[in-house]
Write a structure and sequence with these properties.
Blueprint (H helix, E strand, L loop, with lengths): L2 H7 L7 H21 L4 E6 L3 H16 L3 E2 L7 E6 L4 H20 L4 E6 L5 H10 L5 E3 L7 H11 L3 E3 L20 E5 L1 E2 L10 H5 L3 E2 L2 H13 L4 E5 L16 H9 L6 E5 L8 H9 L6 E3 L7 H6 L6 H14 L4 E8 L6 H14 L3 E6 L17 H23 L6 E9 L6 E6 L4 E5 L8 E10 L2 E6 L4
Parallel strand pairs: 1-2, 1-3, 3-4, 4-5, 5-6, 7-10, 10-11, 12-13, 13-14, 17-19
Antiparallel strand pairs: 8-9, 15-16, 15-18, 16-17, 18-19
Helix pairs in contact: 2-6, 9-10, 13-14
The structure holds 5'-deoxyadenosine and iron/sulfur cluster.
The site of iron/sulfur cluster has 12 residues, from helix 3 and helix 7.
């Protein structure tokens, strides 16, 4: 047998052993190159998109560090990875722009490796375009096989040409690979992957695949490990957390999972995202109402306030059902902060439809809202719909909506002015030296003077002055 065959024979067939094997091989190669260069090899990940991608990037960084890279600070690193998003067209355009820039960077450092992964790579036209026009890219992979990063780097180093590995879907959920968390005291935790909702504007079900829930035991043991490692707040992540557990061999509801997470000693705050209004159960509302740890915040995407548009969007609730759900939530959790996502300019949206959206915004009075201009995504049902709304009309509606959302949020956030609230201190303030930035249970940000040693702790803060979306406060001395 040749040496190469020997190597092939010893590659473990099952995960995570296989990836641990490749991390070791890449580590040897990184060490050799680093010795040649007389310095460590750096890596840098740039993350686009949502919390899911942010969590994936922590996993990818965990693999890179295990494979011998050290963390760099920018794109002038030896390994640069873009974890992409494709939910709207402008996310894609940004990636092409940055790739153009990286071409010049790589000319100065020809050993540099450039990798692309994430939702945008699950679109065949994108991969085609990169293969043709961005030849300086070394590795392309998708959303289903991020756990394979070490193996793909190894292949690239061996084959010395662009490696493309995109899976159309997967049932696999690989546990127990290294993860490098951005914050020591809070963490995202995936509870499910994929989405089965097929909202007619949305590309996510096509790029993230069918819904798969993790076993509750795996989730609970991950959280227990995080807590023993200093984490006090978890954010349970899924595209539609309210349908968690339905397809497991032993089905369990999301509300029941939350109750079990609540019992973990040392864990102080529980958040979750994203909730689909159609699946939000009374059981969940009751669990939120009686919980001591679940934060008083719910992100409840509205998308549109017009029942006619909601039907075209395939959202499966009406304006009235949404408003009634908000009433039930507020009756059970009176001080809950509500936030939302709204799309303006969905095909066929009339001025009357848009007024319905404004009406919901005025009635619900959100703490904040993300507002988006509709973006046509190839392959989604809405892309083929007639009556795409003219750009100027959309822009005018978008500006009106934004103003309404901001004016209301400023009044709503003010309700806490003058009160003292528990705040999880997250970081030093990036604008004001000597200040810290933290978050209320309801997710509003507060800045106040304090020592960096408080980062990661929950402290009482007096919310002295509301400033639109955030507060200026002062630490309350508890000695
Ligand atoms: N155009 C604009 N916004 C979109 N979103 C999802 N798809 C599109 C699209 N095609 C928004 C939705 C979703 C958020 C994550 O992104 O509001 O809740
Ligand atoms: Fe997240 Fe969706 Fe963007 Fe993918 S396409 S990164 S799932 S928002």
């Amino acid at each position: 047998m040749t040496q190469e065959n020997n190597r092939m024979a010893e590659i473990p067939a099952t995960e995570p052993a296989r990836q641990k094997y490749f991390m070791k091989l890449v580590r040897e190669q990184v060490a050799a190159l680093s010795q040649k260069k007389g310095r460590p090899l750096t890596c840098f990940i740039s993350t686009f998109g949502c919390q899911m991608n942010a969590r994936d990037s922590e996993k990818l960084l965990g693999i890179l560090l295990e494979a011998g890279f050290v963390q760099g600070t920018d794109e002038h690193s030896d390994f640069v990875l873009y974890n992409t998003c494709t939910v709207r067209e402008n996310a894609n355009l940004k990636v092409y722009g940055r790739l153009g820039y990286l071409n010049g960077v790589k000319r100065k450092n020809p050993d540099m490796l450039i990798a692309l992964c994430g939702c945008m790579m699950q679109e065949p036209e994108v991969v085609e375009r990169i293969r043709k026009s961005y030849r300086h890219v070394d590795i392309i992979f998708g959303t289903h096989n991020i756990f394979r990063l070490a193996e793909l780097i190894y292949r690239r180093l061996e084959e010395r040409k662009m490696v493309v590995d995109i899976w159309e879907g997967t049932d696999a959920i690989v546990e127990e690979l290294p993860i490098e968390r951005k914050y020591p005291f809070k963490s995202g935790v995936n509870i499910m992957f994929g989405c089965n909702n097929f909202c007619s504007y949305c590309i996510v079900p096509y790029v993230r695949g069918r819904e798969r829930s993790r076993n509750p035991e795996d989730i609970l043991s991950e959280i227990k490990n995080l807590v023993s490692d200093g984490v006090v707040e978890v954010m349970l992540l899924g595209q539609n957390v309210n349908s968690y557990g339905k397809t497991l061999k032993e089905p369990i509801s999301f509300a029941r999972l939350l109750q079990r997470v609540e019992q973990i000693d040392g864990l102080e705050r529980i958040r979750f995202m994203t909730s689909h209004p159609k699946d939000l159960s009374d059981e969940l509302i009751q669990v939120m109402a009686s919980s001591k740890k679940i934060c008083t915040h719910l992100h409840l995407p509205l998308q549109s306030g017009s029942s006619r548009i909601l039907k075209l969007m395939n959202r499966r609730y009406t304006k009235e059902q949404y408003l009634e759900l908000v009433d039930r939530l507020r009756a059970a959790v009176p001080d809950i902060s509500l936030t939302t996502d709204i799309i303006v300019g969905f095909p066929g949206e009339t001025e009357e439809d848009f007024e319905e959206t404004l009406d919901v915004v005025r009635r619900v009075r959100y703490d904040s809202a993300f507002t988006f201009i509709y973006s046509k995504r190839t392959g989604t049902p809405a892309a083929a719909m007639e009556n795409q709304v003219p750009e100027a009309v959309v822009k005018e509606r978008f500006d009106r909506l934004l103003k309404e959302v901001q004016d209301i949020a400023a009044q709503v956030v003010k309700r806490h002015e003058g009160t003292i609230q528990p705040v999880l201190v997250e970081e030093t303030d990036t604008h004001e030296p000597g200040f810290l930035t933290g978050r209320l249970s309801g997710n509003t940000v507060v800045h106040f003077r304090g020592e960096p040693s408080l980062i990661g702790k929950i402290v009482p803060v007096s919310l002295d002055e509301a400033k639109g979306f955030y507060f200026m406060g002062s630490l309350v001395n508890t000695d």
